Amino acid sequence: MILLELFWTFFKIGAFTFGGGYAMLPMIQSEVMAHGWMTSTELVNFIAVSESTPGPFAVNVSTYVGTETAGLAGALAATLGVILPSFIVILIVAKGFEKFQNSTAVKGCMSGLRPAVVGLIGAAAVSVGQTVFFPAGVSLSALLSVSCLISVAIFVLMIILALKKVHPILIILLSAAIGIAAGYLQAA
Amino acid sequence: MEQGKTGKEALTGMKQEKKRTKLLQLFLTFLKIGAFTFGGGYAMIPLIQKEAVERRGWIQDKDILDIVAIAESTPGPIAINSATFVGYKVCGTAGSFFATLGVVLPSFCIIYAISFVLRQFEGLQVVKYAFSGIRAGVLALIIKALVSMYRQCPKGVLPYILMGAAFAAVAFLKVNVMLVIAVCAVIGLISTIAAKRRGAQ
Prior knowledge:
By secondary structure, chain A is mainly α. Chain A has helices at residues 2-15, 25-34, 40-52, 57-95, 97-102, 104-133, 140-143, 146-163, 168-187.
């Protein structure tokens, strides 16, 4: 039963994601967190793990959630689920690719989907922001706490580096180093 | 008669042999692509170009543009879309299967192995500190992805409305993400058809 649920949940995630990488985040947030398979903090931590290991984010996260929930069989069920929609659709589309690409139906749907995905990633970013800056809930005292200020400082620095096209893995390593230094300084 | 038959059989045998080699090559090539792409998605495209166009000659440069276009307009992860598509072009449905299996296998194995140690690591104080910094860095990466997707997005009154509505619906009203995606696709479709009709008149 749990295997079927894993398969079906990740099938939905695969079927409703358009565009690569973080476009998957809104669906994963809503589906995986709703099942209680991952907390918001665990998900954000795992994004960093996924960025630092090879392979697509979708496969990484389905394998991880599947393993954590139901072992190897769970990993297989979840990963199969996330792969299957795109596998099937591409097989159908590959023959008449140009006809598909130029059809009014596809163009029309995409013209609505593209901006929607931007809005959805924006919403995902707000939720991740809450997890990063206010892990214990939004409040004025949390905003003025040292740990929140450190997070803000790291965030601002990293966004400058990210927009300058510094490699994601380097950004993760730098953030980790600053996090460790700040943590021990605060404890001392 | 007899000779002709064996000749034909030998030919089919050779064809099968060739197909088997191609399937193995597809599997190994995409295994390599899966093992050396960090971050997935578009990071995979240059590697596919190098392996499938330059090294193997399976597809042409213009096919790469097709792959990007098709990956963008079909659901699912870009890595899976492109592996399935290239596999199909080279060797039909069996090709799709082996290319996709290849691209998935490295990350499946690595994450499966990591999942056993990750929880234990997360308990360490130094790792906790590291992750508290990393989470802020991850938010920066998400914002960067958001900015680049915004830049590629069509601009205009309707796109801005859809963008804002999708954002508000999920961020504040907690509307189901799938519903938002479906509704926006339908609105895009209707507006495109309406624009076409106006153009025709």
